Every structure is written in structure tokens, then in C-alpha cells.
Amino acid sequence: MKHSFHIVGEPKGQPRPRAFARRMGARFVARVYNPDVADEWKERVKVAVRNGMPTSFADRPSDRAFAVHMHFQFQRPKSHLTSKGILKAGALFEHLKKPDVDNLVKAVLDAISDTQRVWADDAQVVQLGVSKSWTSGESGLQLEIEPL
Questions:
Q1: What is the bridge-based pairing of β-strands 125-135 and 66-75?
Q2: Which of 26, 51, 105, 148 is the most buried (most CB within 10 A)?
Q3: Looking at residue 29, what is its pLDDT?
Q4: Domains and CATH numbers, the chain
């Protein structure tokens, strides 16, 4: 049985961990941290999954395999539209800009894993379909999770 979610908001990719070094006395101390630029987006995904999964998933994460399909939509920039708000002839449907689909997927799968409502680890995802496009409507994600 497929579980479908529509999550509204600007999709964000999982940022790469950042490192910095700081002098502390005579030594340098290195630190690694995860930037928080995707935290709000990941929280939206978590809330949608927590609220949208059936109660049978609430007890504990499943140990089954899963298929996941994601379609990310990004609001068109004004440069794609004429002054009257009509789509220009050369405007693409495909979203060829950042964020990359691999970073988008990583953020969503990590958020779902954090809920502990669907799977124990995103390694259980054995099928994955991903697309991204422009939209004239709201930015967001159409997400489908299917236990196999």
C-alpha cells in the first residue's frame, strides 16, 4: 500500500559537513559541523511523515524493503514569465539548477529516518525514483513511500 504526501515549501538539499580550525593557545583545534540551512525543510518532511503514516507504523519502524518516489517542484523565477505573467516560449520544464537531486534525496531520506516511524535505516530503500521541475504553483515535494 502506497503512502502519499504533499509537502509544501522550498525543497533544500542536505548540505555537506563543514570543517574549520581554530588556534587555541599553541595548538590548532579542528571542528566539524553540519550547516543548518536544510533544518526547516527537513522538519516539514518529518511532520508530514509523522502525521501521515498509518497507526500501524507508529509502534516501531518496519524491517521491510521500501520503494520511494520523489518529485520536487520549484517556483519558477520571474525571468521565465512575460510582463503579463505568461510563460515565455523558451522557458524549460526541467529544473536544471541547484540543488542537485542527490542532495535533495539525502535530506528527505534522513528526515524520514529521524522520525523512526517508517524504517530503521534508509538502507532499506531498494527502489528510488526522483525528478525535479519548475512549477507556476507552490514549491514542494510529492512523496510516495511503498512497503515492498
A1: parallel
A2: 105
A3: 85
A4: 3-147 (3.30.1330.70)
- Residue 128 pLDDT level (bands cut at 50, 70, 90): very high
Residues 6+ apart with CB under 8 A from 47: none
Distance CA 76, CA 61 (A): 37
Structure confidence by residue, pLDDT tens digits, 64-116: 999 999 999 999 998 899 999 889 998 888 999 999 999 999 999 999 999 98
Q: How far apart are CA 117 and CA 134, in angstroms?
A: 31
Bridge partners of residue 103, in order along the sequence: none
Distances (CA, A) of 111 to 39, 69, 104: 9, 15, 11
- The DSSP bridge partners found for residue 8 are 140
